Amino acid sequence: MDWLGHLRLTVVYDGASHKQENPLGNELILGNMNTTLAISKPEYNVMLKNIQDRMPAVTRDTSNFHKSHSQFMSVTLDVTAITPIRSIKHTLAEIDRTKSALQEAYIGLRKKQVELKKKERELESCTDPLDRELLEIEILEVNSHLEGTQNHVNGALRKMNFMVNQHKQLLEKAGKNEITEEDYEKEESKYHIMTCMKQALNAARSRNGMIDEGNLIYLFDLGINAAQAQAEVFAYLNMENQLISNGTAPTHEMTMRWLEACADKWANDPATFAGRRGFSVFDESSLTNRLGYAPAEE
Q: Which end of the chain is more exposed for a tag (fewer CB within 10 A), N or C?
């Protein structure tokens, strides 16, 4: 069984069994606080009682979170790649980061569960009242850590499941069953031209139509004449202004089609510029998992 299978058993079964069998749950922290702390004013007992009464609802609603970002934010602000295969690459990177975090959490969870079992065993054989009390406090501490870790594990599992589903949808959108390294390399020209022009257009909106220096350098490095790019930006902004003057609202889809047209227009320029400097932007012999590729027999 792989680590994900062990994690499922750990979170669903081991976590549940400890909650059922261990009477020293985290609820005792709030329940016994009024007898443990030296509270000088009686209204604090009322506050503690109110907190304890409301805590089940708070815990229930808090379980909706315990993850870094919402689903909406993940696909709009986290994965911002403008082309399909780059979107898949960034989605896979999110999955990989979440998987690594889950693996670390799993190891930490298992260690704490073993620590808890050892302390419970010590408690069974302990006869000194103060040592027993100290062990009970330590068990509370471990349980608190386990609960917090499990909450974050649950959030990470939801995020990972969401991103895995996004990967499937992106493959369907691209009309592919798998992505090869060759697919990735061949889309790079389109990705960088569209990204550069997206940034250039957005910069120009706040600069009286002028592309900023950073994206002019980006255009040069892609082998695209900056005067041509500036003319395209002027023409597009002028078209938008005419639509607005006529009472029609420009759309985001129009911008995407313009970006795709720019990418098609200058598709070969990066390779031409790289060739002028002695480079090749694509080398089949240095790729792996190409579709239809059969390794040479030894």
A: C
Q: What is the DSSP letter of 11?
A: I
Which tokens go with 70?
Answer: 């919402």
Return the half-sphere exposure (C-beta side, CA atoms, 13 A cut-off) of residue 244.
8
Whether this prediction's pTM lies above 0.85 is answered by no
Judge whether 166 and 75 are in contact, CB under 8 Å: yes
String of b and e for 245-279 (b: at least 16 CB within 10 Å)? Answer: eeeeeeeeeebeebbbebbeebeebbeebbeeeee
CA distance 240 to 236: 6
**Burial of 142 per CB tally in 10 Å (0-12, 13-18, 19+):** buried
Q: What is the mean pLDDT of each run of 10 residues along the chain (298 residues)?
A: 59 45 47 58 81 87 85 91 95 94 91 95 96 94 89 90 96 93 95 98 97 98 98 98 97 98 98 97 86 54
Please work out, in degrees rounded to the nearest 5, the angle formed at the alpha carbon of residue 98 by the alpha carbons of 92 and 101. Answer: 145
Total residue length of the chain: 298
Three-state SS sequence of 162-176: HHHHHHHHHHHHHCC
- Dist. CA 187–CA 64, nearest whole Å: 38
Residue 212 three-state SS:
coil
